[in-house]
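Obj: model holo form, ligand = zinc ion.
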Amino acid sequence: MIRLHKGPPPDILVNKAAEWTKEYKDALAAKTMTDTIRYRYRHADIKLALRRDSHNKCIYCESDIGFGQIDHIHPVTKCPDEIVLWENLALVCPECNTHKSDYHAPTEPLINPFVHEPSAHLLFLGSMVVAVLGDAMGLRTLKQMNLNRWDLIQKRTKRLERLVPLIEQWRAHPDGATKTILRNAIRDEASDAMDYAATVRAYLKGVLGWDHPPDASAPDTAVATSG
Ligand SMILES: [Zn+2]
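Output (holo structure tokens):
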């Protein structure tokens, strides 16, 4: 899980959110709900904007999303006013959506990567995720979302296994343009758009001392030449 930022809402929501919300609440009250009214948040323009903001990944587990689902961060069963609220919509994988279910506890929220800095609450240790000791929000999120489910452990492990040869190549190379290209390639592996970026960032910090984003005052080559 990495920190994310909400871009502007799509025009369809700017123009229709209030009308759609009223229709939804009226249909709820009158028991005249239809799929059209219920699922307006699945509009293609909305999904496109959500994909942009989540870098085509599940906002919780960072798995690449083929056919992702739109999640209401606050479940609509508890917060019907937020059925098409832009800040309440996010793209998630089916597994995370299932685990999250309709969890809602206003004073004990889960990590919302659009609001919270996940690395303040979760530590990525190799392919595992643990909560920062004593951090209740980290612990809740870890357990509710089951962020150490077996398929995720396997995928994060494969991710790191792909990274190690690149690091070895970079380390072995003499200083120069090629080494810089290899270093940048490693940096790219930790970028927002890459799957399991939090795992990669923590690994690079742990084995190379690299911060993300890079700290300009501490050149990456310092570790290479001293090691
Ligand atoms: Zn997920």
